[in-house]
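Objective 1b: paired records.
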Amino acid sequence: MSVVRNNAEPLAIVFEDDGLVPNSILPFLVYQGAVALDPKNPEETIETLFGANRWGGTWRNGVYDYLHYHSTVHEALGVARGHARVRFGGDHGQELQIRAGDVAILPAGTGHQCIKASDDFCVIGAYPPGSRMEITRATPENHAKALKTIPKVKLPPADPVTGGDGALMRLWR
């Protein structure tokens, strides 16, 4: 049985560089309700899906409540439990409600910050192979450095949700 719902197509948003958060020329993607979670082990459902699509370095937690981004790596956030309101794209970005079964894919440089989360909110984070995750705060100095590192971040080998033929492969090329 497939854990990805048929015809999963993500919402795609391009966030502008706001002078502190570089964001990306690549679209931020959100698959809404795309993953059919095992109610007994929703975290494992997402970890297995990400692993099958060659996204690793997984962790289980929430989303930090301060604005940050990653300038050295793309990130996938799969919601295993609960729901949260997260601002993506920095202070001038967009607040989205993400819930269990959703997956957000953040190209390197995409700002994110949890605004409010349910008590049971649990996210699985993952990264493409060969990349190193660093947490970067939105400052003018970090922005200048990020503009140099982000273009060097390699494209992932597969979409973390739908694999080698997934939307990310089409939308990020």
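Objective 1b, second protein:
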Amino acid sequence: MQIVLITPAPAGSRAGNRATAERWAELLEQDGHQVCIVTEYNPDLPCDLLIALHAWRSHDAVQQFRMDYPTKPLVIALTGTDIYDHQYRFPQETAYSMEQADCLICLHRQVDQDIPDQFRQKLITVLQSAALSSRETGSRGEGFQICVIGHLRDEKDSLRAALAARLLPANSGIRVLNAGKAHTAEWENRARTEQETNPRFRWMGEIGRDETRRLMQDSDVMVISSIMEGGANVVSEACRMGLPILASDIPGNTGLLGPAYPGYFRTGDEKDLAALMLKAEQNPQFVRELEAAVAKLASDFSPENEKASLAAAVTMATTQRSELTRSG
């Protein structure tokens, strides 16, 4: 099939949605499809199937595509902002896209609990994958390094680990390294101010993929503190690497790590996070428990599983649209 994949993130962007689009294109091409990634809908492109990242942001493209191609299948990938924000702030546009989709891709296992009942039968879970890699435990030098990976923005609650580090006792060796581009000037100012006033915190800004991987390999623990998340690929990467995770207890994290995962803290609560960070620093058995938990999850995030799930989404969308066309 000739597949058009639309994402708001332009070529060269390090946004998660661009990485997802490029990885999906590669996996779909391995199955023999031809994939064209675009940021705006183009009716002149050959298209047997459209995959749109974002229900709300892709509303205009979905509307035009359905007018141009009423018999062709449409897949929409639901992002965290679609599920936990846009469907409430922009209900008409978001619901329209979900209604028009023949298949809805979700990136964690609990999305069915957070969308309208009538759309649940369209859902297919596609867990984002990462390459299998390793860390050399016990060889990272003095102190206890915690990494935070992700662009600085409200949804990520990006400085929660830094605020938690302020609450640690003086004898703690914890330091927090935060890698990610500031989404706004306000976030940049907040990060710089935090770095100037918090000796345990360093903001690295936006870094490349290889440097990000090294940061994770050199860290003892990763914190993901988001207040809303569609299913962060950095969780997949950490699990495939064996890097322990301390995660906010939001559906986007529990839907990846499972309800029994031992490393959750109350979302937005730096006191609870600080206690968990200190436990990780002081209790090697707790770290081994976290390492065992992420290692057990690693196979869930393999490229083979993601490829198979994408193939199932394409099949669902094609079958559904064909049945609708025959009946209507």
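The chain has two domains: 2-129+302-327, 144-301. The chain is about 45% helix and 15% strand.
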